[in-house]
Amino acid sequence: MHKKSLLRRFIIIPIVTFFVFAFLITFIFVNFEYDRFNRDSKIYEQNYISCEKQELKSRIEKIIDYIEFQRTYTSQPEEEIKNDIVELISTLRFENDEYIFVFSTSGQVISHPYISGKTSSGNPVNIFDQQEYKVFKSLLEVGNSEQGGFLTYLWKNYPLEQMELKLTYSRFYAPWDWVISTGVFIEDINAIVDQGKQAMLEQIRKTIIFIVIIFGIVLAGFVFLIYWATKLIESEIMGFNSKLKTAVYEGKAIDQKTIKYKEISSLVSDMNELILSFAATQENLRTSEERWQLAIKGSTDGIWDINFKTNTYYFSPRWKEMLGYSDDEFENTNAQLRSKIHPDDLPAFDKALSDHLNRLTPFFKVEYRMKCKDGFYKWILSRGQGLWDSSGNIIRIVGSHTDITETKQSEKILMETIKVKDYLLKEIHHRVKNNLQVISSLLNLQAKNVHDPFVIEVFRESQNRIRAMAVLHEKLYGTKDITQIGLKEYISDICRSLIRSYGVYGKVELDISIRDVSLGMESAVPCGLIVNELVSNSLKYAFRDMEKGLVKITILKDEDSKVVIIAEDNGIGLPKDIDIENPSTLGLQLVVSIVENQLHGKIYLCESQGTKFRITFKELNYKERI
């Protein structure tokens, strides 16, 4: 153990603990004394004010007793006694220049050291302001009884020429119609009370200083004992440390007979086990390091390691060899790494690394281009895994570095091939559509030379069937995804084409309700032919002798993912004796054949006001053709 660490453990910590304990005890004591001081000072102040009141009352009582004595036991006339008493009162002075003053209930000042006479208005004193009038009026009210009373008010301290609070006792003397008063300024009371409080505080300070001195003496002794014990333990540990270093270096156990104290002897026993375990671990680590180095040298991938604790980077020789550098030509730094990454790929590299370090992705994986020594770029696949501590802080991330340039070139060739294939397929659909339109045009030209209505109708039906297939190839040519056809637009185009073909625009209303249903070409072509036949049948036969008609087509997928086609109209309906299993008309025969033989589905003729067919089938899977 290091010397400073030992002193910190065996001296500083106990001293700090003792100091904190002493501080808490002192703090509690000071708080207790402070509370006691507040309580005692309030009691002291109350008692002193009570004594002061008693003193004021005693002065007045003595004056009244003296007056009674003079009146009872002297033969002087009443007026002479009054004059003697007034002269006596005017000369009396007490502590802090306190005095006695007398005035009559009629308002005349009998005796006052600073005020005399009577105003012309009859007020009881020589009033200088309204406040003095209120004070003397209150004194008259309080003192107008034989018991007297106390009053606190704001009055001029004449020697100091300033206004101060004054406590006054007044008592009525009925025989002479006198109100005799005496008082003391509150400031004088507070000054004496403060002197008493200061004496109490001084006593508390002496007590606290005494306690601090005692704690200091105890602390000094405690520090000495701890220091002596620390030196003793340090000496033994230093000896043990020397033996431990020798044992670790030589890989041998420590001789326990040389250990003096049993506590350290028990520690030596555990340390011997650790030393032997450490030696075995060192050997295993050396073997693991050799395997790691052999794996790096033998791997076709480069190895990289970023240590965030030490901010060091490692790139294996194979990693550098991929870029055409020798081991000493490429610095193991972040700046060197980033200088070789293509500028357009740096944002993707930074985002992938940041996401993994913030644990947004389970592992680090990103593809980017790196500049080789010859100036050309190689595609690199970098993969890695981070290591975090228990607090969630990143420690390091280790990964591999794979050259995928050939794979990228193969992918590029493959994508170009797919583009060519898509182009050829669209061109084929375009040419098929054009050929079907040519056939439809030939049929149209041929129909113009025929005058038999039946034959003309046959030509028209053939044209509509060809047009239904041509619309599909037109959609495939114009879509990006040639594997799926959206039925809503496809079926709508077929129905609108039939309306134009039969010339019933404005007479027959179309209601097409198709949800987001898409089918492959294997199922879309038969589906279009079915709708073509059923709508054609409705337009030809359903609305004879009717001014308005409605054809409704609904296509959806049910819960079993089956395609459901509902074709209905509000026309005159089919003959009651028609057999849907063996229809007599070519159109229905074609519909039944497509549903049962090509789509492997079922067709139902539902009861309705007009005609209603319900067809269900599962979408056909694409079959490769040789």
What does this molecule look like?
With 626 residues, this protein is α+β, with helices and mostly antiparallel strands. The protein contains 13 helices and 17 strands. The chain has helices spanning 3-73, 78-91, 130-143, 186-250, 262-298, 317-322, 334-340, 346-357, 405-448, 453-478, 487-502, 521-542, 586-598; strands spanning 100-104, 109-111, 149-157, 162-173, 178-185, 302-307, 312-315, 364-371, 377-388, 394-403, 485-486, 508-514, 518-519, 549-557, 563-569, 602-606, 611-617. The protein has a 5-stranded antiparallel beta sheet with strand order 2-1-5-4-3. A hairpin with a 4-residue loop joins strand 4 (162-173) and strand 5 (178-185). Helix 10 packs antiparallel against helix 12 (521-542) and helix 11 runs parallel beside helix 12 (521-542). Mean pLDDT is 77; it is low at 118-129.
Shape: elongated
| Number of distinct beta strands | 17
What is the arithmetic mean of pLDDT? Answer: 77
Measured on Cα atoms, how large is the radius of gyration? 59 Å
Write the element-wise H/E pattern from the N-terminal end onward: HHEEHEEEHHEEHHHEEEHHEHEEHEEHEE
Subunit arrangement of the protein:
single chain
Question: What is the strand content?
Answer: 15-25%
How far is the N terminus from the C terminus?
Answer: 84 Å
Protein structure class = alpha+beta
Task: Record the strand order, biggest sheet.
Answer: 2-1-5-4-3
* Helical content (DSSP H or I, runs of 4+): 55-70%
Low-confidence parts, pLDDT < 50 over ≥5 residues?
118-129
Number of helices: 13
Largest sheet geometry: 5 strands, antiparallel
